Amino acid sequence: MFALAVAAAIAASPGAKDSAVAEITRLEQQWGEAFVKRDFAFIERIVAPEYRLVGTYPDGSFGIIRRAEWMKNSRAFTHHAFAVETVDVNHAGNTVVASAQGLWTVTMRPGEPPRAVRFFVTDTWVRRHAQWQVIHRYSQSLPGAAWPPVASRKPAAK
Q1: CATH architecture of 2-141
Q2: Is 91 buried (19+), middle (13-18) or exposed (0-12) by CB count in 10 A?
Q3: How do strand 62-66 and strand 78-92 relate by DSSP bridges?
């Protein structure tokens, strides 16, 4: 019991929280780089078995893609470039929710020219067996949004 209490205290400490924020920020960057490098061993490690990608479209429709289909697509696409900026990381115990914006340059079908896709994502990460894995991503494409990004809108302090 004492060991569990110590582990919980360490996980709740500001140092552990800062460490998780830095690690998730780094993993978000490495995830994008792994696409460009075609480092699917890295991607296999960080994408959890129950992973889902949920995306919305301008007409209000949405799609939900499970891990197997997502992994198949990620290997079929040609990833030319990926830039990401993690804008928020919210850490609670063994769970982290990270929000990031970026620009992905990809060819999705043979013979098509590369296209730039501006996006905003929210990723849910869970710490298991001393490593972080992403279990869920909500993604919204931002057609026409500037890159580099414009200044964020934050609520005024009270």
Answers
A1: Roll (3.10)
A2: buried
A3: unpaired
